[in-house]
Write a structure and sequence with these properties.
The complex is a heterodimer of chains A (167) and B (559). Chain A is α+β, with helices and mostly antiparallel strands. Chain A is 28% helix and 41% strand. Chain A has four helices and nine strands, in the order βαββαββαββαββ. In chain A, strands 5, 6, 7, 8 and 9 form a five-stranded antiparallel β-sheet that branches. Chain A has a four-stranded antiparallel β-sheet with strand order 2-3-1-4, covered by helices on one side. The longest helix of chain A has 13 residues, at 55-67. Chain B contains 23 helices and 20 strands. In chain B, helix 3 packs across helix 18 (417-427) and helix 9 crosses helix 14. The N and C termini of chain B lie far apart (71 Å). The chains are: A alpha+beta (167), B alpha/beta (559). Chain A binds chain B through residues 10-11, 14-15, 18-19, 22, 26, 56, 59-60, 63-64, 66-72, and chain B through 116-117, 120-121, 124-125, 128, 145, 179-182, 303-305, 308-309.
Chain lengths: 167, 559
């Protein structure tokens, strides 16, 4: 079982996201993250889903998604060279003095930005692949993470290859 | 200038709909008002569940799309079981529901329910209409989606204000539907077909496993040609009964949990299994690892998601069964002759257990079904409820053609048969429609006796009455040490009930009276009810216990 990144092009209509999400739940497919937004095609949206399952289940996931009338194209980009990013906002305890300096140092090392500073907390914004964000999260735990929000992964193939439908 | 309700009715007529099954209510009043003057035939049922089962029975009997109509909230929710039934058996049904006005949507208004949300997992597609101008286009699309590809139910939810809105310029409805995300593959891939032909020619112990897809695609003639050319024995699923005539020498009968010995042994021993419009349901395969363990598998199906879902497949062919078989037949030029494999199967067939004979003096369901089969031959349409009655009908009626057999296979819906028989009778008024029922199932939609009387729908109800929930009792007998926990039903005077509704009936207790009673029922012009007081603890045999391999059958006593 490994995480698969699936890119789904759908019609931008009410209820489409719940059709897609509902399909995952009711068929017992374990979904790790789901990110959705508009895309290059007018009237369409692209959903990026990360699903943890073996290849056989993923095949079934793709086939079931393809059966939905509002789904235009489903691509598993796990095995093709791609770039992937997610954003996390992390609110960390940062008491004035040593710990605040350390947190800021860490942020700097991870190229995270500090987007809010409170009297006892700072909020970091970090962009990167899942591994990088996981690593930063792990390091920040010792200072105390007050709140954490992640967008879920978005991804696209590298180079001239696309997951757009053939025109 | 037209209202949404008028556009709806006109669209239905444009789709060639001649009858709809429904039940009125607050949020469909504008539609019912339009129906009042329309040429569309509306059958008033007594429960919305019956409306959708009737639409389903209509669709299965005729091959056309069945249509039902219900109000919002409770009306719509009562459709759920029927929609799920149609979904599981891939039956083309368009279900139309009323909805509270758009201004109240989401407010928990009186009789509001999110029916598109509720039915999301059991519909092929659904629409919540928010603009009356789009209604014509949506109806056209819905019929197209329901009746093409792998067929299935489509729901159209129409808020009341959309029904009353007056539209000056409705969206034009294109003759040909084009939906970007929905393009079913009809023709099989030529390379795959070529490979299939070589696998078929090379096999020494091939078996065809034919399912409901053969019936749905109208592929029975191509299937016969294929089987006869290559002398390949055919076993059918419950849904595939009628795809090959019962008495055809190549027919092995049904396979699976209550399948024949010859079919289950053949599948276990074959070296090539050709699955045609069938989906490897657990009631068919039993223990998956032991299902066709030594066979290469060819799977022909219009739904790519079915291929490899349960059983690994060596050669998939995505396409319409009739089309694909036609292509295969064009390539099979050399006729094969009887092989040792055929001889072996013929021997198994001759050794299969025989049904109880009449001279036992007992009133057995097998004898009743066989007698009906002899009397009706191929002029009848057999609809069943769910349970023992369904399996006895499947095992002992001799089906000779497709669409002669209508039953809830995938969902196993008790209460399905009677309303589905009403739909079948409306679709095929020239055929004798018989609902083979159990006393338990029949009581789930017994109120439809009022419907058959109101419209004089000549459905024959044949209750195999054992005063038990018979199939559950059978499982309790075999696997729960005869602890009949809540499966005994008190005796009901079904003839009396039928009479109260205005339906004539006879109660039969003696095997000697079976033939006459059936004759009387079949020659009667209108609906008729027969209450057969059968052997109470008769079982459906053979039987494969759940989770066992299909060649590990319990055979029962060889009476």
């Amino acid at each position: 079982m490994k995480p698969h990144t699936i890119s789904i092009l759908v019609e931008n209509r009410p209820g489409v996201l719940s059709r897609v999400a509902g399909l995952f739940t009711r068929r017992g497919f374990n979904i790790e993250s789901l990110a959705v937004g508009t895309c290059e095609e007018p009237g369409m949206s692209r959903i990026t889903a990360v699903v943890i399952a073996d290849d056989e289940i993923i095949e079934q996931v793709k086939k079931q998604l393809n059966k939905l009338i509002n789904v235009i194209k489903v691509s598993d980009i796990t095995y093709i060279d791609h770039v992937a990013r997610e954003i996390a906002l992390i609110k960390v305890s940062a008491e004035p003095g040593t710990s605040r300096a350390e947190v800021m140092q860490l942020a700097d090392n991870f190229r995270a930005r500090i987007i809010d500073v409170g009297t006892r907390t700072v909020v970091l914004e970090v962009t990167g692949d899942t591994v990088k964000i996981d690593a930063l999260e792990k390091l920040l735990h010792q200072y105390g993470i007050k709140e954490l929000v992640r967008t879920g992964k978005i991804a696209m193939p590298r180079g001239s290859k696309t997951v757009s439908p053939r025109k | 200038m037209k209202t949404g309700a008028k556009i709806l009715i006109e669209s239905l007529l444009h789709e060639g709909v001649d009858a709809i099954f429904g039940y009125p209510g607050g949020t469909v009043l504008p539609i019912y008002d339009e129906l009042y003057d329309s040429s569309l035939r509306h059958i008033l049922v007594r429960h919305e569940q019956a409306a959708v089962h009737a639409a389903d029975g209509y669709a299965r009997a005729s091959g056309r799309v069945g249509v039902c109509l219900a109000t919002s909230g409770p009306g719509a929710c009562n459709l759920v079981t029927g929609i799920a039934t149609a979904y599981m058996d891939s039956v083309p049904v368009v279900a139309i529901t009323g909805q509270v006005p758009t201004t109240l949507l989401g407010n928990d208004a009186f009789q509001e329910s999110d029916i598109t949300g509720i039915t999301l997992p059991i519909t092929k597609h659904s629409y919540l209409v928010n603009n009356a101008g789009e209604l014509g286009k949506i109806v056209h699309e819905a019929f197209y989606i329901a009746g093409t590809g792998r067929m299935g139910p489509v729901l159209i939810d129409i808020p009341k204000d959309v029904q009353t809105d007056v539209v000056a310029d409705p969206e034009t409805v294109p003759e040909k539907v084009s939906i970007r995300g929905y393009q079913p593959t009809v023709r099989g891939h030529p390379k795959q077909i070529e490979k299939a032909v070589s696998m078929i020619s090379g096999a020494s112990r091939p078996v065809i496993y034919a399912g409901g897809g053969v019936i749905a695609s109208g592929g029975d003639a191509e299937l016969m040609r294929f089987a006869e050319t290559m002398m390949i024995p055919v076993t059918t699923t419950l849904m595939g009964l009628g795809a090959i005539p019962a008495h055809h020498p190549l027919n092995l009968g049904m396979l699976g949990m209550h399948g024949t010995q010859s079919a289950n042994y053949a599948v276990t021993e074959c070296d090539l299994l050709i699955a045609v419009g069938a989906r490897f349901d657990d009631r068919v395969t039993g223990k998956l690892e032991s299902f066709a363990p030594n066979a290469q598998v060819i799977h022909i199906d219009i739904d790519p998601a079915e291929i490899g879902k349960n059983k690994a497949v060596d050669l998939p062919i995505v396409g319409d069964v009739r089309q694909v078989l036609k292509e295969i037949n064009l390539k099979l030029t050399e006729k094969r002759v009887q092989s040792p494999w055929n001889d072996r199967l013929a021997e198994w067939k001759s050794q299969s257990i025989q049904p109880p004979a009449v001279d036992t003096g007992l009133l057995t369901p097998q004898y009743i079904v066989r007698t009906l089969s002899d009397l009706l031959t191929d002029s009848g349409i057999i609809v069943t409820e769910v349970g023992q009655n369904q399996m006895w009908a499947a095992q002992h009626y001799s089906f000779t053609r497709p669409r002669q057999w209508i039953t809830s296979g995938g969902l196993g819906t008790m209460g399905y048969g009677f309303p589905a028989a009403i739909g079948a009778s409306i679709a095929c008024p020239d055929k004798t429609v018989v609902d083979i029922a159990g006393d338990g199932s029949f009581q789930m939609n017994i109120q439809e006796l009022a419907t058959v009387v109101q419209y004089n729908i000549p459905v024959k109800i044949m209750i195999l009455n054992n005063q038990y929930l018979g199939m559950v009792r059978q499982w309790q007998e075999l696997f729960y040490d005869r602890r009949y926990s809540y499966t005994e039903l008190p005796s009901v005077d079904f003839v009396g009930i039928a009479k109260a509704y205005g339906v004539p009936g006879i109660c039969v207790t003696d095997p000697a009276d079976v033939k006459d009673a059936l004759r009387q029922s079949l020659t009667c012009d209108g609906p008729f009810l027969l209450d057969f007081r059968i052997e109470r603890e008769e079982n459906v045999m053979p039987m494969v216990p759940a989770g066992a391999a299909i060649n590990e059958m319990i055979l029962g006593d060889k009476r």
